[in-house]
Amino acid sequence: MKRKVILGMIIVLAILITGCTQAPATTDDQDTGTETKTEETADAVTTASIVDTEEAFIKAISKDGTWLIATLNDLKIDSDLVLDGDFVNGKKDDAGNDIVQRKIGLYTQDEARNVTARFTLTAPKLTINSPKASIEHGTFVGDLYVNASDFQLKGQKIEGNLYFTTPEAQATFMMDETSSVTGVQELKQ
Q1: Is residue 188 part of a domain?
Q2: Which one of 17, 75, 81, 110 is least enclosed by Cβ atoms within 10 Å?
Q3: What tens-digit pLDDT sequence spans the chain (189 residues)?
Q4: What is the rounded distance in angstroms from the CA atom of residue 45 to the CA atom of residue 91?
Q5: How many CA atoms lie within 13 A of 31 on its CB side?
Q6: CA dihedral 106, 126, 179, 134 (to 10 degrees)
Q7: Backbone torsions φ then ψ of 178, nearest 5 degrees
Q8: How crowded is residue 108: how many other Cβ atoms within 10 Å of its Cβ?
Q9: Is 133 helix (H, G, I), strand (E, B) or coil?
Q10: CA dist 134 → 74, 137, 188 (Å)
Q11: What kind and span of H or E run contains 170?
Q12: Does any domain span residue 12?
């Protein structure tokens, strides 16, 4: 089983690195691998962050973090969390524009992109400030506050409440048929 998990991690990392090319930027931060963009585009273009500790997860979701945060195990964090910053995923749309995206992946996958393990993130509160963000294929235990537009749940279970802080955040929210929220889903301004 341990071999499968390690193999899965290596495959996920390889897929993410090859699928996430970096766009040119105005400055380069050698320590984090983050490139800061000019003001008319996203704040940063980065590769994925594969995390297995509370500290690494908190750094990865910050405005100086990465567009994709992938966990390798369950995480329990006793403080409120904030997914912050505008990021692009290294891909272009049909018009040649950078694609804005932010993703918390609470899972591992195999080379065929089949989910091989799902993980639980526990925190009192998670606030989503990054536009076009998603949480995917795991469980979040706590209350989720959505400030940003186009937030998505994909194969995700929320054991708690889902609060939208603006009508736009609520109107642009999407949840697939495999996702669920055990608590209320309501506008809370």
Answers
A1: no
A2: 17
A3: 555 555 455 554 444 444 443 333 333 332 333 333 333 444 444 456 899 999 999 999 999 999 999 999 999 999 999 999 999 888 999 999 999 999 999 999 999 999 999 999 999 999 999 999 999 999 999 999 999 999 999 999 999 999 999 999 999 999 999 999 999 999 998
A4: 10
A5: 4
A6: -70
A7: -95, 0
A8: 24
A9: strand
A10: 18, 10, 20
A11: helix 167-171
A12: yes
Q: Specify the amino acid at residue 83.
A: L
Inside any domain, residue 56: yes
Yes or no: say if 126 and 140 are a contact pair by the CB < 8 Å rule: yes
| Alpha-carbon separation of residue 94 from 50, 77, 99 (angstroms) | 29, 39, 10
The structural domain count of the chain equals 1
Structure tokens at 39: 């003001």
Using alpha carbons, list the distances in angstroms from residue 179 to 15, 37, 159: 25, 34, 11
- Model pTM score: 0.76
Structure-block tokens of residue 140: 């979040």
* Cα–Cα dist 3/26, whole Å: 41
Say if CB 52 and CB 73 are below 8 A apart: yes
Indicate whether 49 belongs to any domain.
Answer: yes
The residue segments making up the domain with residue 95 are 2-140
